Every structure is written in structure tokens, then in C-alpha cells.
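I am writing to request your help with a piece of structural work I have in hand. A protein sequence and the C-alpha cells that stand for its backbone fold form the material at issue. Please examine both parts with care and let me know of anything in them that strikes you as inconsistent. The record follows directly beneath this note.
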Amino acid sequence: MSLQDGSGKLVASSTSSSITTLDHIIQQTNFTPNFIKIDTDGFDFKVLRGARATISAFMPILYFEWSLSHLLEQGESPTSIFPMLRDLGYEKLVIFDNFGDLLCVLDSTDGLNLSLLMGYTNTSKQIHYYDVLAIHRASSFCLQEYLRIYASGA
């Protein structure tokens, strides 16, 4: 592991490590998640894919980092996870910049605007990644109420 700017990063080495999926952990513990936060510097899509059964069964709110440079380092297409999320019932995406400011709410099928946002991080001097809050269509989370409270500054 390499530490840089307050963040840890896995790097290639001769030491082996075991890796497991979130689905396996949930299955072993019988835990019922209602919120899953992922910040794994480029491995976020892999974690989400390894949690597919958990996400499908429990429909938790998902919060993950979306970084062009980290995803490309992992050989990931920057928008490849969104069709899977849509198939699993995640329709609304609340997008925050790397300062935690709410930027927009997009539909998970809005590939054009997702691509434009990701492309912007490639040229921006300030926005380096986004955080995405993905909400399942059956969630009791009230997005409109959240947006109202956020806008009021309360």
C-alpha cells in the first residue's frame, strides 16, 4: 500500500493478499445493509460488481467515488457501471464535486451528461472526481425532501 495526500492506494508487489466480494461478506454475516459507501480509489466499480447480489436483494442507497484517473488506472470505462445500476433499479444519481457540493441530479440512463461530467474532470483544475449517491426506485429515501433541505442550507 502506498500512502499519498491522506489516501492509501494498492500498488503491485510480490506480497499476496486475499480478496473477497461484498456479496460473500454479507452472505457470511447475515447483515442487512441499507447504505453502502465505497471509496476505493478506482476499485469502486469492482466493489459494486462484487456486491451485485447484495444490491439486488437489499436495494441500499449507494455512495461511491467516481474518478476518471483512478478508473482508467484499473482499466475501467468511466461510465460502465451505470447500466448495471439502472438494471438493478437505481434510477436517480445525485452528483457531488470533490468538495462535497451538490452539482446535479441525473437519471442513470443519461449517458451524455455522465460522459460530459467525467470529461470535465480531465480539463478542470479544481474538480478531480465526483461522489455519486445512487438511489433505488423503491427506496424510502425522499430525494425531493433532501434537495429542499440542501437548497435551504438547513
Notes: The chain has a mean pLDDT of 90. The chain has seven helices and seven strands. The helical segments are 22-29, 44-49, 52-58, 68-73, 81-87, 111-123, 143-152.
